[in-house]
Amino acid sequence: MNLPSRTSRMRLPVSPLAGRPAPESLLADGPANHRNSAQPLKILVVDVGGTHVKCAGTDHADPQQFPSGPRMTPAQMVKQVLKLTRTWRFDAVSIGYPGVVARGQPVRNPQNLGRGWVGFDFAAAFGRPVRIHNDAAMQALGNYAGGKMLFLGLGTGLGSTLIVDGVVVPMELAHLQWRKGRDYEHYVGDRARKRLGEKKWRAKVKRVVYDFRNALQPDEIVLGGGNARRLKHLPPSTRLGDDLAAFRGGLRLWDDRARRDGMHARSLDPVARAKSSNGRRKAPARTPH
Q1: CB of 23 within 8 A of CB of 283?
Q2: d(CA 123, CA 231)
Q3: % of the chain surpassing 90 pLDDT
Q4: Which of 99, 115, 161, 282 is the most core-located residue (most Cβ within 10 A)?
């Protein structure tokens, strides 16, 4: 297996709250000259998938989406995002990319989208600073609660990321060969679910989870992606990911100054949102750093 280079890894301090993501979604600014350093940036988070592109932001906690598909190019994606968010105010962009990212740039075209993603100037297209991370890694970051966690994204394909003590390591476990010369994604991706039927697909997912647990020995496994909720029973030491995890992870990509200035954005945290909406639920206390 070709592990990601060190340049594709990311270290992030995260509050180790047992059993749930850390409640704070940290924001920070981009380049110092982009706006007044006393103000936190407003972030647009774009989660690019094989069937849909979803958008949320600092002031827009309810994700908006539009269809993607096998012919969508990066220019088409940006055009649609800007159209969808034309009334939003944002100063920087986080992109969850469904493919391999190194040094903050895509290095392979995604398998389930169009061509032209490698070398595309996203910052110029958006007219703002952009940070790009593997989409599974961004979801993992939003779900992380400390220790050693393996994230598996069950969507159009199979995404995977390992986080160990705050170090994020995007992986490509989906394309390891498993059986009969086929890779893992062939058995647990969305095409496999449609081909095999729900019952057999669930059995394959459980077997894959078992194999990866034995190989990587994580403290817990988080299952995310659109198909994760199709599982009737979760394997031991496994939990479902948070629907807003990708967007919280996208905010955390810009947390450079938040750790210094204590600026926290809770708009994408479901606990904080519930508290603000009904006044009854309280977010769990943060563990002191």
Answers
A1: yes
A2: 38
A3: 67
A4: 161
Please give the structure tokens belonging to residue 153: 């994204």
d(CA 227, CA 270): 20
Please report the pLDDT score of residue 114 as a whole number.
Answer: 95
**What is the secondary structure of 118-181 as a DSSP string?**
TT--HHHHHTS-EEEEEHHHHHHHHH--SSEEEEEEESSSEEEEEEETTEEEEE-GGGSEEETT
In angstroms, the Cα distances linking 230 to 139, 146, 234 are: 18, 26, 10
Tell which residue, 190, 55, 177, has the closest CA to residue 111: 190
CA distance 191 to 173: 17
Per residue in 46-102, pLDDT (tens digit) is 999 989 999 999 999 999 999 999 999 999 999 999 999 999 999 999 999 998 999
* Angle (nearest 5°) at CA 65 between 96 and 229: 75
Rg (C-alpha) for the chain, rounded Å, is: 18
Contact 17, 146 (CB under 8 A): yes
Coil, helix or strand at residue 183: strand
At 49, give phi and psi (nearest 5°).
-125, 175
**What is the tens place of the pLDDT at every residue in 168-199?**
998 989 999 999 999 999 999 999 999 999 99
Domains for the chain: give ranges and CATH numbers: 17-139+243-278 (3.30.420.40), 146-240 (3.30.420.40)
Most distant CA pair in the chain: distance in Å?
Answer: 58
User: ∠247-150-208 over CA atoms, to 5°?
Assistant: 115
Angle at which helices 135-143 and 245-252 cross, to 10°: 90
Angle, vertex CA 30, rays to CA 87 and CA 46, nearest 5? 45
Give the Cα separation of 89 and 93 in Å (integer). Answer: 11
